[in-house]
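Record type: monomer structure entry
Structure origin: computed from sequence
Chain ID: A
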Amino acid sequence: MVKPTSEEIAQRDSIFSRVIEAIKSEVTIKLPPFDSVFSKSSESALLSIVNEPNPFCGFIGEFAYQFEGEEDLLHVFVVRTDGMEISVEDAQWVVAFALPNVPAAFFFVKPGAFSQHFYIGHDFLLEYCES
């Protein structure tokens, strides 16, 4: 995998802080609005979403990761910025970067071809981050 740049690390740290603050404040993390008229499939829609500026999306190398809040779960999806297929293993590496020191065993994985989706309970994430 690629070695993160100092800018990617700073961006990750800033996003991670916003994610934790949103969860503690019980603020739902929403995806940015995007024009679905131009999205031919759900996969291209996800690529459109990460191309919209928003405080819960980050990049590392050729990968983008996007956080979204659900009732008591944090959803993070990973795509390649070139729209090509992404392996579960590559996406797991990105999530490990995006959520530093959170064990992979805490995540439920919903694999795909062009995007990989990970879910973690808010309570597990907060408990782990505060310990």
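Annotation 1: The mean pLDDT is 87.
Annotation 2: The longest helix spans residues 6-24.
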